[in-house]
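Quick log. Single chain, no ligands specified.
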Amino acid sequence: MGKEERTVRFDHDLQIEAYRFEGIMQKFPNHFHEYYVIGFIESGQRRLSCKSI
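-> predicted structure:
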């Protein structure tokens, strides 16, 4: 199993948090946020469903 790495940074000027996850192989349960979330996948794939469609 590869190395897991989690990094969190907060930008005081922009008032945003940035999270970086590497090597984490876990499933995330379906959920929603009350704020914007932007994700970027460098390799592999991710499936997203909205309203069970």
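The CA atoms of residues 14 and 45 lie 29 Å apart.
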